Amino acid sequence: MAGSASPLAAGPGFRKLMLQRPSVAVTLAIFLLIVAACFLLPALGVTSIGGMSVRNRLTGPSSQHLLGADAFGRDVLGRLLVAGRTSLGIGLGVAILSSAAGIVIGLVAGFFRRLDTPLSRLIDAMMAFPDILLALSLVAIFGGSMANVMLALSVVYTPRIARIVRASTLVIRELPYVEAARALGTRTVTIMLTHVLRNIMSPILVQATFIFAYAMLAEAGLSFLGVGVDPKIPTWGTMVNEGRQYIDSAFFLILFPGLAIALSVLSLQIVGDGLRDALDPKLAKET
Distance between alpha carbon 45 and the CA centroid of its chain, in Å? Predict the structure, then answer.
């Protein structure tokens, strides 16, 4: 089939890129280690939050608490890993939801000319608002639960995917193999899914990686402001928010969740850049 290469076909290019750019391989390994630690160590009982302990309150890193104890005497490492599940889960959920919604909107806008103008104006209007301001407004409307935060952030980042899908669809719909499929009487939905969507998965995958990182950062910002996930559910953002009042006496309460956010987001950004270089034919040749 004519068209751009699929992500699977670009696999060797990505492996070559990781050999040529060790930073991509290193940051991918760091991110996978963070994910594995957050989901495996607490499940295997290697780490635990523990109960409240006045005696251990605000104690620094030690053999008993490797990353210290919080204001209630709970193990910071255990909380950090459990909070990571929520933060990573929200980021992944937002990436999936916004990609799915953006694909639908972008395909419809790019394939049906009558709907292109109103949908494009809607996308432009949504992108005119700063991400955090729009997210704050939506969370205030929906409420501060984990599902509502994911929904609000998905609404915020859907236009990013929709614009990419629309632009790619406008080009591909005019290509000869799409015209041939129409002449053969192929259903419009089949053309959209088989001939169009299949050939634009590379930029969608790259943008979804960036949205994963953006969503984690936005969730941390919302939780830091106290309008995100329920404070009873630990996230890296809520840990930073809880620890800011003890910054003078126990700076590690902010340091470690802040490092977790920074490493995860930076790793995803670098991996996303690597994916873009590997999946874009022009950049792949230059690399």
Answer: 27
